[in-house]
Amino acid sequence: MIEVKHLTVKYNVKEAQAALDDINFTVESGERIALIGANGAGKSTLLLTLIGVLPPSSGDLCVDGIPVKKDTLREIRRRMGLVFQNPDDQLFMPTVEEDIAFGQRNYGLDEETIQKRTAAVLESLDISRLEHRLAHHLSGGEKRLAALAGVLVMEPAILLLDEPGSFLDPRSRRNLISILSGLSQTMVIATHDFYLAQKLCSRVILLAEGRICADGPAEEVLGDAALLEENGL
Ligand SMILES: Nc1ncnc2c1ncn2[C@@H]1O[C@H](COP(=O)(O)OP(=O)(O)OP(=O)(O)O)[C@@H](O)[C@H]1O
Ligand SMILES: [Mg+2]
Question: How far is residue 173's CA from residue 16's CA, in Å, rounded to a whole number?
Protein backbone atom coordinates (compact mmCIF):
# COMPACT_ATOMS: atom_id res chain seq x y z
CA MET A 1 0.00 0.00 0.00
CA ILE A 2 1.25 3.46 -0.92
CA GLU A 3 0.06 6.56 0.95
CA VAL A 4 0.86 10.03 -0.36
CA LYS A 5 -0.22 13.07 1.66
CA HIS A 6 0.29 16.71 0.69
CA LEU A 7 3.39 15.82 -1.30
CA THR A 8 5.26 18.74 -2.83
CA VAL A 9 8.50 18.44 -4.79
CA LYS A 10 10.65 21.28 -6.06
CA TYR A 11 13.78 20.71 -8.09
CA ASN A 12 14.95 24.20 -7.23
CA VAL A 13 13.93 25.68 -3.89
CA LYS A 14 13.97 29.19 -5.38
CA GLU A 15 11.48 28.30 -8.11
CA ALA A 16 7.90 29.38 -7.54
CA GLN A 17 6.49 26.52 -9.65
CA ALA A 18 6.75 23.14 -7.92
CA ALA A 19 7.22 20.00 -10.06
CA LEU A 20 4.62 18.35 -7.79
CA ASP A 21 2.18 20.42 -5.80
CA ASP A 22 0.09 19.03 -2.92
CA ILE A 23 -0.36 15.50 -4.26
CA ASN A 24 -2.70 13.18 -2.32
CA PHE A 25 -3.63 9.59 -3.13
CA THR A 26 -3.57 6.05 -1.80
CA VAL A 27 -2.77 2.89 -3.74
CA GLU A 28 -4.22 -0.30 -2.30
CA SER A 29 -2.34 -3.55 -2.49
CA GLY A 30 -2.88 -5.24 -5.90
CA GLU A 31 -4.22 -2.09 -7.59
CA ARG A 32 -2.90 -1.14 -11.05
CA ILE A 33 -2.92 2.57 -11.68
CA ALA A 34 -2.06 4.47 -14.84
CA LEU A 35 -0.46 7.86 -14.34
CA ILE A 36 -1.16 10.05 -17.34
CA GLY A 37 -0.44 13.68 -18.18
CA ALA A 38 1.24 15.88 -20.79
CA ASN A 39 5.02 16.17 -21.11
CA GLY A 40 6.38 17.83 -18.00
CA ALA A 41 3.22 17.15 -15.94
CA GLY A 42 5.27 15.48 -13.19
CA LYS A 43 4.78 11.73 -13.80
CA SER A 44 8.46 10.76 -13.66
CA THR A 45 9.04 13.13 -10.75
CA LEU A 46 6.28 11.36 -8.82
CA LEU A 47 7.68 7.87 -9.47
CA LEU A 48 11.22 8.98 -8.55
CA THR A 49 9.91 10.52 -5.34
CA LEU A 50 7.88 7.41 -4.41
CA ILE A 51 11.00 5.28 -4.50
CA GLY A 52 13.13 7.84 -2.68
CA VAL A 53 15.41 8.98 -5.51
CA LEU A 54 14.09 12.54 -5.15
CA PRO A 55 13.47 14.03 -1.69
CA PRO A 56 10.06 15.67 -1.16
CA SER A 57 10.07 19.36 -0.24
CA SER A 58 7.12 18.68 2.06
CA GLY A 59 4.41 16.13 2.72
CA ASP A 60 4.27 12.50 3.79
CA LEU A 61 5.02 9.35 1.88
CA CYS A 62 4.57 5.79 3.21
CA VAL A 63 4.97 2.36 1.66
CA ASP A 64 3.34 -0.45 3.65
CA GLY A 65 3.37 1.89 6.60
CA ILE A 66 7.10 2.62 6.29
CA PRO A 67 7.95 6.30 5.76
CA VAL A 68 10.14 6.82 2.67
CA LYS A 69 13.35 8.48 3.88
CA LYS A 70 17.09 8.00 3.75
CA ASP A 71 17.39 5.36 6.45
CA THR A 72 14.45 3.26 5.20
CA LEU A 73 15.48 3.18 1.52
CA ARG A 74 16.86 -0.36 1.68
CA GLU A 75 13.58 -1.62 3.09
CA ILE A 76 11.54 0.44 0.60
CA ARG A 77 13.50 -0.86 -2.40
CA ARG A 78 13.05 -4.43 -1.25
CA ARG A 79 9.30 -3.87 -1.70
CA MET A 80 9.27 -1.56 -4.68
CA GLY A 81 11.08 -1.57 -8.03
CA LEU A 82 11.25 1.25 -10.61
CA VAL A 83 11.77 0.88 -14.34
CA PHE A 84 13.19 4.27 -15.36
CA GLN A 85 11.82 6.24 -18.31
CA ASN A 86 15.27 6.15 -19.90
CA PRO A 87 16.82 2.66 -19.87
CA ASP A 88 20.30 4.24 -20.00
CA ASP A 89 19.67 5.44 -16.43
CA GLN A 90 18.98 1.86 -15.38
CA LEU A 91 21.50 -0.38 -17.11
CA PHE A 92 24.94 0.05 -15.62
CA MET A 93 26.68 -3.32 -15.72
CA PRO A 94 28.63 -4.26 -18.88
CA THR A 95 26.45 -7.17 -20.01
CA VAL A 96 22.71 -7.82 -19.83
CA GLU A 97 23.30 -10.97 -17.77
CA GLU A 98 25.44 -9.12 -15.19
CA ASP A 99 22.90 -6.34 -14.99
CA ILE A 100 20.04 -8.72 -14.27
CA ALA A 101 22.19 -10.68 -11.78
CA PHE A 102 23.32 -7.56 -9.89
CA GLY A 103 20.25 -7.00 -7.71
CA GLN A 104 19.91 -10.71 -7.01
CA ARG A 105 23.58 -10.95 -5.90
CA ASN A 106 22.97 -7.95 -3.64
CA TYR A 107 20.24 -9.95 -1.93
CA GLY A 108 22.62 -12.82 -1.43
CA LEU A 109 20.93 -15.34 -3.73
CA ASP A 110 23.15 -18.26 -4.72
CA GLU A 111 24.62 -18.39 -8.23
CA GLU A 112 22.52 -21.35 -9.37
CA THR A 113 19.27 -19.62 -8.39
CA ILE A 114 20.46 -16.39 -10.01
CA GLN A 115 21.19 -18.20 -13.27
CA LYS A 116 17.80 -19.92 -13.28
CA ARG A 117 15.86 -16.75 -12.52
CA THR A 118 17.84 -14.72 -15.04
CA ALA A 119 17.20 -17.28 -17.79
CA ALA A 120 13.49 -17.44 -16.90
CA VAL A 121 12.94 -13.67 -16.99
CA LEU A 122 14.84 -13.34 -20.29
CA GLU A 123 12.75 -16.13 -21.75
CA SER A 124 9.47 -14.56 -20.60
CA LEU A 125 10.40 -11.28 -22.30
CA ASP A 126 11.58 -13.20 -25.36
CA ILE A 127 15.13 -11.78 -25.14
CA SER A 128 17.22 -14.85 -24.26
CA ARG A 129 19.39 -13.95 -27.25
CA LEU A 130 20.54 -10.77 -25.47
CA GLU A 131 21.95 -12.49 -22.36
CA HIS A 132 25.63 -12.04 -23.22
CA ARG A 133 25.34 -8.80 -25.17
CA LEU A 134 26.88 -5.51 -24.04
CA ALA A 135 24.11 -3.38 -22.56
CA HIS A 136 25.29 -0.16 -24.20
CA HIS A 137 25.26 -1.78 -27.65
CA LEU A 138 21.57 -2.68 -27.51
CA SER A 139 18.85 -0.96 -29.52
CA GLY A 140 16.34 1.27 -27.70
CA GLY A 141 13.71 -1.46 -27.44
CA GLU A 142 16.24 -4.09 -26.42
CA LYS A 143 17.50 -1.78 -23.66
CA ARG A 144 13.94 -1.21 -22.45
CA LEU A 145 13.32 -4.98 -22.25
CA ALA A 146 16.65 -5.61 -20.49
CA ALA A 147 15.86 -2.89 -17.94
CA LEU A 148 12.41 -4.41 -17.36
CA ALA A 149 14.00 -7.83 -16.88
CA GLY A 150 16.32 -6.47 -14.17
CA VAL A 151 13.37 -5.15 -12.18
CA LEU A 152 10.89 -8.02 -12.80
CA VAL A 153 13.47 -10.62 -11.74
CA MET A 154 13.47 -9.14 -8.23
CA GLU A 155 9.70 -9.71 -7.95
CA PRO A 156 9.07 -6.56 -5.91
CA ALA A 157 5.57 -6.34 -4.40
CA ILE A 158 5.13 -2.92 -6.00
CA LEU A 159 6.20 -2.09 -9.55
CA LEU A 160 6.68 1.49 -10.70
CA LEU A 161 6.94 1.61 -14.48
CA ASP A 162 7.83 4.78 -16.36
CA GLU A 163 6.71 4.46 -19.99
CA PRO A 164 7.27 0.69 -20.09
CA GLY A 165 5.99 0.41 -23.67
CA SER A 166 8.19 3.08 -25.21
CA PHE A 167 10.69 1.95 -27.88
CA LEU A 168 8.96 -1.43 -28.16
CA ASP A 169 7.80 -2.90 -31.46
CA PRO A 170 4.14 -4.00 -31.62
CA ARG A 171 4.86 -7.62 -30.77
CA SER A 172 7.12 -6.82 -27.78
CA ARG A 173 4.56 -4.30 -26.55
CA ARG A 174 1.76 -6.88 -26.74
CA ASN A 175 3.97 -9.41 -24.97
CA LEU A 176 4.78 -6.87 -22.25
CA ILE A 177 1.09 -6.07 -21.72
CA SER A 178 0.34 -9.77 -21.47
CA ILE A 179 3.20 -10.36 -18.96
CA LEU A 180 2.18 -7.42 -16.78
CA SER A 181 -1.50 -8.40 -16.85
CA GLY A 182 -0.52 -11.84 -15.54
CA LEU A 183 1.28 -10.38 -12.49
CA SER A 184 -0.50 -9.83 -9.18
CA GLN A 185 1.76 -7.00 -8.06
CA THR A 186 0.67 -3.48 -7.25
CA MET A 187 1.62 -1.24 -10.19
CA VAL A 188 1.84 2.45 -10.92
CA ILE A 189 2.45 2.94 -14.64
CA ALA A 190 3.31 6.35 -16.10
CA THR A 191 2.32 6.28 -19.74
CA HIS A 192 1.13 8.13 -22.83
CA ASP A 193 -0.07 4.78 -24.19
CA PHE A 194 -3.82 4.78 -23.52
CA TYR A 195 -4.25 1.32 -25.03
CA LEU A 196 -1.74 -0.09 -22.53
CA ALA A 197 -3.37 1.91 -19.71
CA GLN A 198 -6.81 0.60 -20.60
CA LYS A 199 -5.62 -3.00 -20.90
CA LEU A 200 -3.78 -3.02 -17.58
CA CYS A 201 -5.26 -0.46 -15.24
CA SER A 202 -8.64 -0.08 -13.60
CA ARG A 203 -7.81 3.36 -12.23
CA VAL A 204 -6.24 6.42 -13.83
CA ILE A 205 -4.65 9.47 -12.21
CA LEU A 206 -4.32 12.51 -14.46
CA LEU A 207 -1.57 14.99 -13.64
CA ALA A 208 -1.31 18.51 -15.04
CA GLU A 209 1.39 20.99 -14.05
CA GLY A 210 2.25 19.03 -10.94
CA ARG A 211 -1.30 18.64 -9.65
CA ILE A 212 -3.79 15.80 -9.73
CA CYS A 213 -6.75 16.94 -11.82
CA ALA A 214 -8.56 13.60 -12.07
CA ASP A 215 -8.42 10.30 -10.19
CA GLY A 216 -11.02 7.70 -11.04
CA PRO A 217 -12.04 4.57 -12.95
CA ALA A 218 -10.01 4.15 -16.15
CA GLU A 219 -13.03 4.17 -18.48
CA GLU A 220 -14.28 7.40 -16.90
CA VAL A 221 -11.02 9.37 -17.09
CA LEU A 222 -9.85 7.98 -20.44
CA GLY A 223 -13.36 8.41 -21.85
CA ASP A 224 -13.55 12.10 -20.98
CA ALA A 225 -12.24 13.64 -24.20
CA ALA A 226 -12.82 17.22 -23.02
CA LEU A 227 -10.88 16.66 -19.80
CA LEU A 228 -7.97 15.06 -21.66
CA GLU A 229 -7.88 17.79 -24.28
CA GLU A 230 -8.00 20.49 -21.62
CA ASN A 231 -4.91 18.93 -20.06
CA GLY A 232 -2.77 18.62 -23.14
CA LEU A 233 -3.58 15.04 -24.10
N1 LIG B 1 16.39 17.30 -12.93
C2 LIG B 1 15.51 18.29 -13.06
N3 LIG B 1 15.83 19.55 -12.72
C4 LIG B 1 14.94 20.57 -12.85
N5 LIG B 1 13.70 20.43 -13.32
C6 LIG B 1 13.31 19.19 -13.69
C7 LIG B 1 14.20 18.06 -13.58
N8 LIG B 1 13.54 16.97 -14.03
C9 LIG B 1 12.31 17.39 -14.39
N10 LIG B 1 12.17 18.71 -14.19
C11 LIG B 1 10.96 19.51 -14.44
O12 LIG B 1 9.91 19.01 -13.62
C13 LIG B 1 8.67 19.00 -14.33
C14 LIG B 1 8.09 17.59 -14.34
O15 LIG B 1 8.93 16.75 -15.12
P16 LIG B 1 8.69 15.19 -15.28
O17 LIG B 1 9.91 14.63 -15.90
O18 LIG B 1 8.26 14.66 -13.98
O19 LIG B 1 7.47 15.17 -16.30
P20 LIG B 1 6.75 13.93 -16.99
O21 LIG B 1 5.29 14.04 -16.70
O22 LIG B 1 7.43 12.68 -16.62
O23 LIG B 1 6.97 14.26 -18.54
P24 LIG B 1 7.21 13.27 -19.83
O25 LIG B 1 5.86 12.87 -20.30
O26 LIG B 1 7.89 14.17 -20.81
O27 LIG B 1 8.06 12.13 -19.38
C28 LIG B 1 8.97 19.56 -15.72
O29 LIG B 1 8.64 20.92 -15.74
C30 LIG B 1 10.48 19.36 -15.86
O31 LIG B 1 11.03 20.33 -16.70
MG1 LIG C 1 8.46 11.29 -17.64
Answer: 39
